[in-house]
Sequence to fold (719 residues):
Amino acid sequence: MAGIHLFVPMLHRRDAVGEHTCALRDRLRAQGIECRIYTELVDPETEADTRPYLAYGAEAAPGDVLVYQVATASAMADWLATRPEPLVLNYHSITPPTFFAAWNNGIARLQVEAIAELGLLASRATLGIGVSTFDAAELTAAGCRNVRVIPVASVSVPPVEPDPNVLAELDADRRVRPGPRWLSVGRLAPNKGHQRTLAALASARATADQSDQPGAHLTIVGGPTEPTYARALRRFADALGVHDAVTFTTGLSEAALAAHYRASDVLVMLSEHEGFGVPLLEAMGQRLPIVALAAGAIAEVLGGVGVLLTSSAPSVVASAVADLLADVDRRDAVAEAGAERFASFGLESAGSDLVEALVAVRDGVGEGAPQWSTSGGPMHPDPTPSH
Amino acid sequence: MTDNHAGTNPDHRVALESETDLLPEEQAVLDAFDRMSPQGSLQWDFDAAFRRFADGGTGLPPPRQWQGAPGDLWDRGRGAKAGERMMGDVISVLANHLAEDSRAVVADATAATAEAIWDAFRLLAGRVEQLEAQAIGLGVEPGLLALPDLDASEWVRELDGWLPASAPASDFPVVIGEVSHPEMLATLVNAGRNVTAVDPRAERIRTAEAQGANVVMADIGDYLRTLTTGSLGAVVLSGCTDRASLVGKAAVVDHALRVLAPAGTLVVLSADPDSWDSALTPVAGDLLGGRPLHPDTWALVLPRRPTRSVVRVVVHPATHGAVHAVVAEVGR
Fold:
């Protein structure tokens, strides 16, 4: 029986690509389509859910479609390039190696390999799926001729309810340590620009000091993807004298993360390369105003909501946050616009759109006809300002 | 809104700021952060060293700054060994500068030159150690440097008894690096110990998490460096010193001793050197920077570490496995 099978270098729980892959498998199976997940490396936690990719050859069936989740380098890429089945690239953005070069040369080299592998597979792919027009443009540039934009399928709709205990803790903390609450959500990786957020916080606190106002506090939620960078961030917070005002946390449940969104005053996102930006949508869903740098897909995902900056200079960011928080009406309007943007983003249909696109490949519908271009297409999220 | 606000601009390819948007003091602050990166520090410190070299009264124009990306320093040269390659690079950089006017430099800036060269080589030595410690820096896939599995099962039941007794046991935090034997973690967790497993490998971290341990995804040496002096009841180095150079071994052990509370315990689980040699592939044997120490060597070395007074060392040679255990207790 022909199936649609998913290939991912390693399947992790609590990981954007891993959660997306599992969600897609479940949706395909729910429609009666045979679907297995094949990996190069085994994560003990997901071992029962996966098969080694080299086993696929013996299990292949006529009419199969292979879907590769592209985010990093893998030996699987060379192998997939030799397979005769229709290939779909589900692209999750490759962080440019330059971000890692100074921090981890090994990772930088892997990213170089990943880009080369994308080039190898792109021209061979029947369909490329980007989660944003930004990613879709990268797929096209890599040589993919048929590209669609379908947002990630793993954002919870409706938004997750906050954990009341965490919410109570955060409220109690605010009573003890007054001052605006900044939130930053994203892996501790060099492209995320957390150092700029720390520097902006220091700038904001210096300004608050001068006017005898309580200084802002920052919570950074994200795992230490690059440990040398993560350690440097802590040292940097010390050097800036803001270590008492900064909390690093990771491993939160969805409900605990929702509580952080709900209890904060602003999401500050100064990422310099972002293929999508799930935290932006999560924040909008929780009515949290956003101040963000216009990099990667951020402007596209925001769609005019929030404060979009072209500079992440600390004083510029601090001033933008202060202006936003000082104007209650504007802050409420931004939060409301965010909630509307979240509701209209098409997240609920993303999963079924993805399945539909894959089934079309299996059935040979529209094969070879470009469905997206830089001028936009049917899946292009509406970039029109919503306020 | 200021000019820096893109506002509702739908074009996602908005140009990011140029560095001219930054105030000079902001630029300095962000430069300081860049210098915290492993390669950034090398690049910037080299530049600083050569600035001193040039400003030593030669009257010459300042030397050219390093124009390449930080990573370039890693990739230049084709020497077989990282250390040789790096030495070659530095010598060529030095030669380029000296060639600009070697006579004037020697006459006018001997002292500054000596200082700069010393600084440069001191920095270089540190970097070479890092390169040697990170086999991936050699451009060799980690899979080719696969290490023998550390079978420490012989000591799973013994380990808890070696650690300092306390009531409750959770009062003494225990750090284990790396996650070579999940059962060992489970035993300590079940004994009520407050255990943190440290390992740079994601799959090992997940294994440790499943055993109920706290986890930190990091190199053990780097992690210990971040801890406060005297903050731990015990440190267990489970195989993680085996592949390190002698210098690397000493650095990890010194940090481990430093973070132990009075009467705290350091346990070193180390592969038998002969078994290790025979289990390595020829490639791994050639390229790995270090090999395990015999337990007697550990017993000789540990009391001589300058970091901390080690009052007792007990050696537990392997009987049916290929892993020796050395238990050291620091003074009160």
About this structure: Chain A touches chain B through 63 residues (CB under 8 Å).
